[in-house]
Amino acid sequence: MTLRPARLTSLLAAALSVCVTVVVPPTRGQQPTAPAAASPASAATAPPAKLPAFDVISVKTNNTAAHRSMVDFTPDGIRVSNIPVEFILRDALGVNGDQLINMPGWSRSVAYDMEAKVAPDDVAALKNLNREQRSAMMLNILTDRFKLAYHRETRTLPEYVLVVVKSGSKLEEFKPTTGEDGKPRGNWLRMSDTSLTADDIDMVSFTRMLSQRIGRPIVDKTDLTGKYSFKLNWANEPHEGEGPDGPGHDAGPDTGPSIYTALQEQLGLKLESEKGPVDVIVIDHLEQPADN
Fold first, then answer.
1. Residue 257: CB partners within 8 Å, gap ≥ 6?
2. What does the pLDDT read at residue 220?
3. Which one of 56, 139, 225, 258 has the fewest CB atoms closer than 10 angstroms to its CB?
């Protein structure tokens, strides 16, 4: 099975958003490991002003030709298995493939296993990092070991705008609940090839994951500011060239709705096509590291 860029980057986004283990399954429809509940104590603690540095970084080429990829946030760091550099870079910078300029071919075709750990004194600080800070730490691995250098430009590119349909949003406000252990449940997300189930998710996180799934920048213009619980089910993954006004708008009565139709019917949200100024990343340097 070939892992589609949108599939892999959306799972990386899920892992970084809710800080859980995410596994890309070897067969379609199999769901990744369910996230653990977020700790209310860590959620209430302000993240440190200074990011902890990885004390140990290991990078090795994955030559197994395996179909299984994994992102695992450990108590003292992160473990990545069988993932190409481009997908990590996309998520760390919050961009899609067409926003990365001058990427070398090996960055997509060569997969790596990475493991990074902070020093024992920084474990507590690592626990309190938010999504953006964890992404920045992933970027540090690329600059340290892959000698990444880049600059930003603004170009006019196709993008989507996410809006609420005329009949109104169907999203349900998140209602805190407790599990069997009596602890609050929330900040939970599970994703498969054709479904997404979420609790305690805001539109910033959802738009980011949706953008990476579809493969085009999305601007959130819903004006929805809460946190929500929802299920989204569709029958076919978006392919290059498909869109809300194109051939991928509906997969047909025998297969069910595309993700664009599902957004409207199930969540009361709609993607509209437009062109606008888009932040792009121009790669100045990126090299393959020696295994260690």
1. 234, 235, 250, 251, 265
2. 95
3. 225
Side chain identity, residue 127: K
Q: Report the C-alpha gap between 117 and 78 in whole angstroms.
A: 7
Q: For residue 193, which amino acid is it?
A: D
Residues 173-183, buried b or exposed e (16+ Cβ, 10 A)? ebeeeeeeeee
How far is residue 286's CA from residue 86's CA, in Å, rounded to a whole number? 10
Question: Residues of the chain with pLDDT > 90: what percent?
Answer: 42
Which pLDDT band holds residue 70 (cuts at 50, 70, 90)?
confident
Token pair of 225, please? 């500011």
Residue 119's alpha-carbon distances to 48, 85, 139, 268, in angstroms, are 15, 24, 18, 46
Q: What is the dihedral of CA 77, 83, 86, 91, to 10 degrees?
A: -50
Which of 234, 235, 239 is closest to 266 using CA atoms?
A: 234
pTM reported for the whole predicted model = 0.65
